Amino acid sequence: MQLTEANIGETYIIQDIVTDDEELKSFLFSLGCYSGEPITVISHLKGGCVVSIKDGRYNIDKGIAGSILI
């Protein structure tokens, strides 16, 4: 399922990043967002969601969240 469908407060394991945009993949990798890493949705916002990856919290838009499979 996509990250946009995740429940708030639950920790999931990232299965894959589905995009042809190499810049986006590189950006997500720099945040620690790659296959096998845990990710927690802190809250859903109108335009995206707030997630916790490793020791950081990030606000990502729906387009990016839709490319992260958990």
UniProtKB/TrEMBL annotation:
Which key words tag this protein in UniProt? Answer: Iron
Record-annotated membrane-spanning stretches: none
Q: Quote the Gene3D superfamilies the UniProt record gives.
A: 2.30.30.90
- Give the matching InterPro entries: Fe-transptr_FeoA-like (IPR007167), FeoA_core_dom (IPR038157), Transcriptional_repressor_C (IPR008988)
Statement: the UniProt record of this protein carries the keyword Iron: yes
Enumerate the spans annotated as Ferrous iron transporter FeoA-like domain: 1-70
Provide the protein name.
Answer: Ferrous iron transport protein A
